[in-house]
Amino acid sequence: MKNTRCTDFCVPKNSSIKQLLKTMRVTIFLLFFCVFSTIAGTVNSQNARVSIHKTNVPLEEILNEIEHQTDYLFMYSNNIDVKERTSIRVSEKPVSEVLKKLLGNKIAYEMEGMHIILSDKRENQTAIAQQANKIQVKGNVTDMAGEPVIGASILEKGTTNGIVTDFNGDFSLNVNPGAVLVVSYIGYSAQEVKVIPGKVLKIKIKEDAELLDEVVVVGYGTQKKVNLTGAVETVDADVIENRPIRSATDALQGTVSGLTVTSGTGKPGEFASFKIRGNTSVNSAGALVIIDGMPGDINTVNPQDIETISVLKDAASAAIYGARAAEGVVLVTTKKGTSEKVKVEYTGNFSFNTPTRLPESNTGLDHALLSNVAFTNAGLAVPFSQKAIDAIKDPNTIAIPNGKEWTYTSDMDWIDLMMDHSFQQTHNLTISKASDRLKYLFSIGWLDQNGMFSEYGPDNYDRINLRSNISVELIKDKLSLDSRISYSRGVNLYHAAEGSEGRWRRAYSQSTYRGSIYFRV
Q1: Which end of the chain has a smaller Cβ tally under 10 Å, C or N?
Q2: Are 335 and 237 in contact (CB under 8 A)?
Q3: How far is 249 from 262, CA to CA, in rounded Å?
């Protein structure tokens, strides 16, 4: 085989190596071309000259003119007064010289590549002076057993100046003279320590007993947080009561990490759903919901009756509930009497719901013509006759007969007409009391939710909730009776002849255009 001689090695003719070398030469050439072009562009921008003739105009206008004549981009904070009026007359002067003349002694500038950063000289001088007056404080953070606390937060009180301890519990921080340090760590009580110049601080923090003694519902009983190893999050009644919600699922939205709440379609009686850690299988059944120790539907519970909601997110819950808890467990605990006197509470909520997203409507004429084209292309009979199209064009014609149906031909925006707003109200009444031997709570709740089409026919969801929680100590410290009875009834009202979709819902499903809609009479 004939070879071609090279300086260092031989390459066969028409080989793949020869092609590779050509590709490498082209690549290296393009790389150097791009690098030198970038450098040249930067040098040209730094040597850029501008000509500006402005009299009594805002500073912002002059900065915009510099940006327009060069590739620079100005960056500044809100404390720079760019509305202040000024004047300047320069011709073919470097940008740096123009800025010195324009900004004077009030505003400092710094050129970083293609950016020019403006700052207040007085604030810079104040910050430098404050930094010069600061003192360095060092210290060590340990627990009550003398073990170093890694990652403890050290914060100068009243400021955002802070640091965390290292692997040995040590820290070093520059603070103002007479400052107070706030030392905190998860599970420990926060502690404030006054800085003593020249002294190394030895700080001991102790566990927060109140936090560790907090009771959490797990499975069929309760457990203290100090003994809890599973992934559990709890939502208290305070969070639920302060929200204008219609179901308990809405109360979980944004309160529990790892829990995804998906909103429904907005139809009356259709509530949101939730998933813990997402879908685990194609036939996912969702999380197991336990209400006062019994499986149930969380959306049938009156949100005002809930005391706590505990979400068990890890596999440890399967030890109690088995395979049904593979997707997590939600434990709902309802309220009991807490006041020694008879306590009567009433809460009411009135709200209006409006749609968040609405499609834009096409005109009735465009819809009819395009529909005929589509049906013709598919080899089908056109849905709109020439008579119907002529009626649509005639503003004096409202409808024409079409066999047993009517074709309404007026140019009506059905979406705007029907999707206006809906009304919703909730009312809750609770009577409770707690004594040495008897605790009780009776409640009644009513949810009245109208749909978007309630003005044109039945489109409503009504729910009644009744609850009776009674705890009686029959024999002191020996025998007690705990009774929890609940009743929930929800009624969906729709047009009797049209079923759950309803006549007006069927109209809305056809109303992606304006006008030309079928109705059976």
Answers
A1: N
A2: yes
A3: 9
- Which 3 state secondary structure label does DSSP give 460? strand
The sign one gets for the Cα dihedral 296, 302, 307, 313 is positive
What tens digit of pLDDT does each residue of 104-141 get? 777 888 888 788 888 877 766 665 655 667 888 999 99
Q: Which helix (H) or strand (E) holds 418?
A: helix 414-418
Element (H, E) at 257: none
Task: For residue 369, report the phi and psi dihedrals to the nearest 5 degrees.
Answer: -65, -45
Reference 236, options 221, 220, 255, 223; nearest CA is: 255
Bridge partners, 222 (sequence order)? 217
Alpha helix stretches (DSSP H) within 8-94: 16-46, 59-69
DSSP string covering 303-325: GGGEEEEEEE-SGGGHHHHGGGG
Return the DSSP state at 188.
B
Is residue 408 within 8 Å of 398, Cβ to Cβ? yes
In 3D, which of 451, 471, 468 has the Cα closest to residue 460?
Answer: 451
Spatial CA neighbour of 419 closest among 509, 324, 305: 509
Tens of pLDDT, residue by residue over 233-291, are 788 887 777 677 778 888 788 787 778 888 777 778 778 788 887 665 555 667 888 88
pTM of the model: 0.48
Query: Which of 105, 463, 115 lies closest to 269, judged by CA?
Result: 463
Residues contacting 13, CB < 8 A, separation 6+: 2, 3, 4
Cβ atoms 66, 74 nearer than 8 A:
yes
419 contact partners, CB below 8 Å, separation of at least 6 = 355, 358, 452, 508
Q: Are the C-beta atoms of residues 88 and 101 closer than 8 Å to each other? A: yes
Q: Give the distance, in angstroms, between the CA of residue 364 and the centroid of all CA atoms in the same chain.
A: 39
SS3 call for 395? coil
